[in-house]
Amino acid sequence: MYRGTGAGVSAGIGIGTAVVIREEEMVIRPDKTDDVRAEVERFRKALADTAARTERLAADLAEKVGEKEAEIMKGHLLLLADPVLIGEIEAAISGSGICSEYAVETVLGNYADVFASMDDEMMRQRAADMKDIKVRLQQALQGIRSADIASLPEGSVIVARDLTPSMTAGINPANVAAIVTELGGKTSHSAILARALEIPAVVAVSGLLEQVADGDRVIADGGEGVVLANPDETVTEDYAARRDGLLRGKKELEAYIGRPSVTRDGVAVEIGANIGKPEDVDKVLRYDGEGVGLFRTEFLFMERSAMPSEEEQFEAYRAVASRLEGRPVIIRTLDIGGDKEIPYMGIEKDENPFLGFRAVRLCLNRKEDIYKPQLRAILRASAFGNIKIMIPMVTCIDEVREVKALLEELKQELDEKGIPYNREIQTGIMVETAAAALMADVFAKEVDFFSIGTNDLTQYVMSVDRGNEKVSYLYSSFNPAVLRSIRHIIACGRKAGIMVGMCGEAASDPMMIPLLLAFGLNEFSMSASAILRTRKLITESSVKELQAVAERAMSFETAKEVEDYMREFVSQ
Ligand code: PEP
Ligand code: MG
């Protein structure tokens, strides 16, 4: 039996028969052409063919999984229509009279090398997209069809050196039990697509192709990052049982789609999703989210070279609000600084970024070019759905008052221009700093809702950088100091009669949920994939019964004691 390890990038267990994909090596030589004009025509035809095939892949993917996943193929389409790229290739053909294959090799190969040499992992992964379109263009030029992945027999485990995004997009999930590759990483587009298609996948398994042959029996565990080839009966049975258990669990959760989130003793709460881009709404709808509890708008500003315009932002906010058809959407205004940098904004790096020029501090300092356009875009979009505004990293009441005054000013402006918006739009705050937690009673009188950001609240209450491994032993939301803050914030919000939600990671932690229910939290917001298991847990709980559990948990003096107690409670 062969056992290989790599990175598990798409959870689940797949068992099946290996189909080893060996891409034909294309020999690309710098052949000369006599007829430059005809050669350019030949390139243009291959370009059109490749674009047409990519368009079909994008449409297919949009139907199979969703608009967001199709974006990757649409990105390829943009590259295939990029006038600079096309111009450079055509110039190489006409300028030096080389064949199209070689011109494509030089131009796109160079871009791929540049991306591959960058420090940023995301940028490095974009090299794979460049190579993918390069090879497909060359295949089109040579009349080669790439491995026909769409029609593999049922129960296939794809074994390959690397999978290009377009190959992954062409997969029929009904026939593919798992994907295993020698190369690749967690953020590669093929990994993202594997997750979207819910196919177990393990990547970066070194030496894989020397160990696994076509027709071998293969087990891939995408959670653990393990690959087995030709295992014995008992191992196979053991994995098959685990796979069936996982699938049963998934089916069981589907039963919670369309069910209300109400505890056994009749307490109704809301379970929403955290999103970063309009396309994420696909998943919110798939997992039956009751709204969006946190729209991290900074993602609209990242991975680009200039600020999104007010118009662009308006379109994004409107798209989310209208697709959610009346369900609430909490749009958090720009939260950059801290660990999120945006190079084109020209913001100097702070000595202590998490304690520095971040979020609302930065926005109030850059009203004209950053904050007003964003707030105006949100206000305008509020005419198209149930939008609420949320201010991040608030520490003082003056910040809230300043934002509210700004909103009033913008509303008046819109009134004068006759532009519609929701006059009753709610404004709330993230409660995620120690100052806001301590002053929660004061804030509760000034805002329409709270959303507790435990990711930062833990960092700021414990004085522990959320990204620093060396002090991560101190970073626990179960620390009594953090728990007391959470309980206090919820109590203040409830006393003032406003909604209190939570959008930090703790909101979907099965060990934390019982405590949050006991404290009286109204809304839980989390990654969409955690919604159904949270709804199951909540519907099985009784707030009355949890009071004693919370009381006991709050009597401990260390995070470890609380964690041990809650782990024990949950395991029962
Ligand atoms: C939080 O701080 O808990 C939160 C939800 O926001 P972010 O992780 O974006 O800082
Ligand atoms: Mg935060």
Compact description:
The protein is an alpha/beta fold and 572 residues long.
Structural domains: how many: 3
CATH class of the largest domain: Alpha Beta
Gross morphology is globular
Q: What integer is the average pLDDT? A: 93
SS field, number of helical segments: 23
- Given the helix and strand composition, which structural class is it? alpha/beta
What fraction of residues sit in β-strands?
5-15%
- The largest sheet has its strands arranged as 1-8-7-3-4-5-6-2
Distance between the first and last residues' Cα: 38 Å
The overall strand count is: 16
Overall description:
- Helix content is 49%, strand content 14%.
- The model has no long low-confidence stretch (mean pLDDT 93).
- The chain is globular, with a radius of gyration of 27 Å.
- The chain has helices spanning 36-64, 67-80, 83-96, 100-116, 121-142, 165-169, 189-197, 208-211, 233-254, 281-286, 298-301, 310-323, 359-365, 367-381, 397-417, 434-438, 440-446, 454-462, 480-496, 513-519, 531-539, 543-553, 559-571, and strands spanning 2-5, 7-10, 13-21, 156-160, 176-181, 201-203, 217-221, 226-229, 270-275, 292-296, 328-332, 386-391, 426-431, 449-452, 499-502, 523-526.
- It folds into three domains: 2-23 and 148-253, Glucose Oxidase, domain 1, CATH 3.50.30; 36-142, Orthogonal Bundle (Enzyme I, Chain A, domain 2), CATH 1.10.274.10; 257-571, TIM Barrel (Alpha-Beta Barrel).
- A hairpin with a 4-residue loop joins strand 7 and strand 8.
- With 572 residues, it is α/β, with parallel strands linked by helices.
- The strands form two sheets. Strands 1-8-7-3-4-5-6-2 form an eight-stranded mixed beta sheet. An eight-stranded parallel beta barrel has the order 9-10-11-12-13-14-15-16, surrounded by five helices.
- The two termini are 38 Å apart.
- Helix 3 (83-96) crosses helix 4 (100-116), helix 4 (100-116) packs antiparallel against helix 5 and helix 14 packs across helix 15 (397-417).
- It contains 23 helices and 16 strands.
- The structure holds phosphoenolpyruvate and magnesium ion.
- Residues 392, 430, 432, 453, 455-456 line the site of magnesium ion.
